[in-house]
Amino acid sequence: MLLALAWMLSVVVPTGPTPWQGSARALRPGPEPGWVVFADRAGPSVPAVLHRAPVDGRRPTIVLARHDAGDGVGGGFLISEDRRWLLYLGDEDQPNVSNPRLFSVPLDGSRDPVRLSLPGEFLAGYAISPDSRWVVYKPVGPAIFVVPIEGGVAPVRLNDPPPRPSPAAFHQRISSDSRRVVYLSDISANNAYEVLSVPIDRSAPPVQLTPGFSEGRAAISFTITPDGQRVVYLADLVDDVFELFVAPIDGGSGDSVSPALRLNGPLVAGGDVDDPTAESALELAYQISPDGERVVYLADQDADEVFELYSVSLLARQPVRKLNAPLPAGGDVVRGFCISPDGSTVVYRADQEANDRFELYSVPIDGQAPPLRLNSALPDGGDVGGNVTSWFTTVFAISPEGSRVVYIGDQEQNDVFGLFSVPIDGGEPPVSLTVTLAPNGDLGPRVAYLPDFVISPDGGLVSYWADPEVNDRWELYCAPIKGNEPARKLNGALVAGGDVGAQFIGHVSPYYGHPLFQFAQSAQRVVYMADQDADEVYEIFSAPSDGSAAPVRLHDSLAPLGGAFQFLVVPDP
Fold first, then answer.
1. Please, which residues have CB within 8 angstroms of residue 24's CB and are 6 or more apart in sequence?
2. Are the CB atoms for 400 and 390 separated by under 8 Å?
3. pTM for the complete prediction?
4. Which has the higher per-residue pLDDT, 144 or 5?
């Protein structure tokens, strides 16, 4: 089944711009480290094929899997932490019938794929344990299963069979030490969701972390601390008031549940942590800092329907700190705040100085200093991120090493959105990363689940899509994060109707949450999907991040009605 292709794509001699000045980002003389996993179909009525290709096209491509039935390979790629295994969704059993199952395959192509899920199951979610040994998956229905990533044995059910008809179980998460799985389930009463925890090997039965709810009370979300020892959850223990609590992940010692510790401060009448009526109520409006020391949360704690940002210690009983400055009438802090990788700083958006004018701020996580505004003065009607309030749209991001913030805003002209970069401490003014836009040009289509920009792993570059030349013709650009050199176009010339990634605009699901352009591990190349050579035939390309050479296609040419439909960049082990 495995087929090694005895060809290599030719390497184009650089003819474009010179490498970034003062950087070591020139094309390597040898092969670039890293791989690209992608699925494609060469044409109609042919098998879907799962490939592993070198990120620069200089080494042979291998075939990892072929699927003849249904839609073939359905994507949903996950890579194990040790970078040895790939999970994906594939069809089997019936030709021309979509029947997705969960498979694992070694990334070195040393053996055929193995189906992990049981026959007849339709999947609602899955995850790989951090130690790369286990796969936890959730089919539609009340069960949660675990299976070794290499397969070979039947899946084991983690949660107990339901004690009542038609219960639900969902939102399963694996602890960082790979020892336990935490999930929500209404085991006792309809929609009265409890937080439960079970050993990942099912060596002991599940334990309940919440005190037991009657119908009408529930935990609606949770997150696990970075050390894997505790669970922070949001619940209305009494009176429909949602508050934050923390409990040991194993339920504590003895046979009874350890009392949960309330984290938030006293709430005004009508106040809640988070807004449980919002569209994204199951998305967290609270986060644990990467060092595990503090929880930052959004609440109308001091005034009903005025949402503000707070920080509280997880390690000691200390006063809750409000992080934002006083708000004007109608002002709020909005969802989507970020904590820096070192856990020292929180970046958030708020109409903190004028109602409905959303701006970007940074503040120490312990609240020991006032917040700093990061964006420049805005024109009339201007905002950071516009009026976007969806959790699923990326408005800003902190660089991986924590020194800078990249954000979207109509900072220079109302309703003309560009990309900007600024030090997280506000020590320098923002710089624009966007190429000059034509009339009606914009930065990215702002598609749910897909970011309009991606920061390189080393924090030095930013890649983004924009339509600066022709309205709604999306192309790919890259710029140094400090804005010290102009952005450069990375994609090749597009055929009439061609775009970078346009096939996902307007119909994206969470399974396609991988960016449509991704940096290689060294940041020297960017991989992207486009109908660059033939309209509506989407293919995978790789280009130098400095634009100094033409992009290369990472597979054979595809026939009309064929095309690639998902990819993921994989670093070397």
1. none
2. no
3. 0.90
4. 144
Q: Does the pLDDT at position 57 exceed 50?
A: yes
Establish if 535 belongs to a structural domain. Answer: no
Q: Report yes or no on 312 lying in a domain.
A: no
30 pLDDT higher than 60: no
Summarised one tens digit per residue, pLDDT across range 217-237 is 889 889 999 999 999 999 998
pLDDT per position as a tens digit, 317-341: 789 999 999 999 999 998 889 999 9
Residue type, 87: L
Tokens in use for 466?
Answer: 């924009």
Q: Average pLDDT, stretch 82-111?
A: 82
Cross-strand bridge partners of residue 4: 62
* DSSP result, 482-505: T--S--EE-S-PPPTT--BSGGGT
14/73: higher pLDDT: 73
Q: Give the three-state DSSP class for 442.
A: coil
Which residues, other chains included, contact 256 with Cβ-Cβ below 8 Å and sequence gap of 6+?
A: none
152 located within any domain: yes
Which stretch of DSSP H or E encloses residue 243? strand 243-248
Instruction: Write the pLDDT tens digit of every residue in 177-227.
Output: 999 999 999 888 888 889 999 999 999 999 999 988 877 788 988 999 999
Separation between Cα atoms, residue 358 and residue 213, nearest integer Å: 39
Count of domains in the chain? 1
pLDDT bracket for residue 11 (50, 70, 90): very low
Which CATH number fits the domain that encloses residue 190? Answer: 2.120.10.30
Separation CA 526–CA 313 (nearest Å): 40
The domain in which residue 155 lies consists of 126-262
The tokens for 384 are 């950071």
Report the distance separating Cα 434 and Cα 335, nearest Å: 25
| Mean pLDDT within 390-397 | 71
137 alpha-carbon distance from chain centroid: 18
Range list of β-strands (E), 331-474: 338-339, 345-350, 359-364, 372-373, 396-398, 404-413, 416-423, 431-432, 453-455, 461-466
Could you tell me which of 347, 234, 247, 249 has the C-alpha nearest to residue 282? 234
Task: Identify whether the C-beta of residue 27 lies closer than 8 Å to the C-beta of residue 16.
Answer: no
Calpha distance 126→135 (Å, rounded): 7
pLDDT at residue number 190 = 81
Residue 46 to residue 44: CA distance in whole angstroms: 6
**Three-class SS of residue 512?**
helix
> CA geometry: angle at 124 spanning 260 and 251, to 5°?
20
Q: Is residue 206 part of a domain?
A: yes
Q: Residues 6 or more apart from 311 whose CB is under 8 A from it?
A: 294, 295, 296, 297, 320, 321, 323, 346, 365, 366, 367
CA distances from 143 to 125, 151, 155, 171, 360 (A): 12, 19, 11, 12, 42
CA dist., res. 560 & res. 174, Å (int): 42
pLDDT at 255 exceeding the cut of 70: no
Mean pLDDT of 359-365: 98
Q: What is the rounded average pLDDT for all residues in the chain?
A: 84
State the residue for tokens 């390497």.
Answer: 11
What is d(CA 262, CA 483) in angstroms, rounded to the nearest whole number? 44
